[in-house]
TrEMBL record:
It comes from Lacihabitans lacunae. Its main location: membrane. GO terms for molecular function: CDP-diacylglycerol-serine O-phosphatidyltransferase activity. This is CDP-diacylglycerol--serine O-phosphatidyltransferase. NCBIfam families: pssA. Belongs to the CDP-alcohol phosphatidyltransferase class-I family. Keywords: Lipid biosynthesis, Lipid metabolism, Membrane, Phospholipid biosynthesis, Phospholipid metabolism, Transferase, Transmembrane, Transmembrane helix. PANTHER family: CDP-DIACYLGLYCEROL--GLYCEROL-3-PHOSPHATE 3-PHOSPHATIDYLTRANSFERASE-RELATED (PTHR14269), CDP-DIACYLGLYCEROL--SERINE O-PHOSPHATIDYLTRANSFERASE (PTHR14269:SF61). Its EC number is 2.7.8.8. The keyword Chloroplast does not apply.
Length: 230
């Protein structure tokens, strides 16, 4: 069994980003920690792309990818939420609720690894989506008065933890941005979603990410109930 492959080294880079991001949280630099989540996301896409390109996909690569994702998109985002609750919550114990996100992320990834239904789609919110959303919050706090006020309350963070912990494991099919081919007929929903997401990013920048996550959930629900056709 080959373990020293290029895709696996890329996955280990993802894991390293998670570790370095944790150091940034301990140092009190949440923006730097968030940047490590963004880099981890790029590496998370890259390892799968390179594995398919080199025909070197393997079971150990799949397991390693999930282990790296637990750190970069589960534990690290939880610590960012922990630091915010530590700052904004008057209850000294409330901040520990942030680690529900790490726990449910681990549960979601373990479920993903053995769930045969998730080869072409997801069941529950992917951990990178949750991680990248949390990574935008330190930047949004300085973006506008609205976000500053919203993200400076303990109830926002508590509500976020509860809602997104559930979304990670809920039995809702969500479409995956995987392309077997690039024809419009078979991928029109994905192309429309990507085009709308690009437009939102160009117009709102970091503030677009929450809208994109909501758009992703809405599109998935409409597909599930056949309001939209894939």
């Amino acid at each position: 069994m080959k373990i020293f492959t290029i895709p696996n080294f890329i996955t280990l880079g993802n894991l390293l980003c998670g570790c370095l991001g944790l150091i940034s949280v301990f140092e009190g630099d949440l923006k730097k920690a968030s940047i490590f989540i963004f880099v981890a996301l790029l590496l998370d896409f890259a390892d799968g792309f390179v594995a398919r390109l080199l025909h070197s996909s393997s079971e150990i690569g799949k397991q390693l990818d999930s282990l790296a994702d637990v750190v970069s998109f589960g534990v690290l985002p939880s610590f960012i939420v922990f630091k915010n609750l530590e700052t904004f919550s008057e209850n000294e114990y409330m901040k520990y609720g942030a680690f529900l996100l790490a726990m449910f992320s681990a549960l979601r990834l373990a479920k993903f690894n053995i769930d045969t239904r998730q080869s072409d789609s997801f069941i529950g919110l992917p951990t990178p989506a949750n991680g990248i959303l949390i990574a935008t919050f330190p930047f949004l706090i300085d973006n506008s008065d609205f976000w500053n006020k919203t993200l400076s309350t303990e109830w926002f963070w508590i509500s976020y933890v509860v809602v997104f912990s559930y979304l990670l494991i809920m039995e809702l099919p969500l479409f995956a941005l995987k392309f077997k081919d690039y024809s419009w007929a078979k991928n029109k929903v994905k192309f429309i979603f990507l085009a709308l997401s690009a437009g939102l990013l160009a117009f709102f920048q970091f503030a677009a990410v929450p809208f994109i996550i909501v758009l992703y959930l809405v599109f998935s629900v409409l597909l599930h109930f056949k309001v939209l056709k894939a």
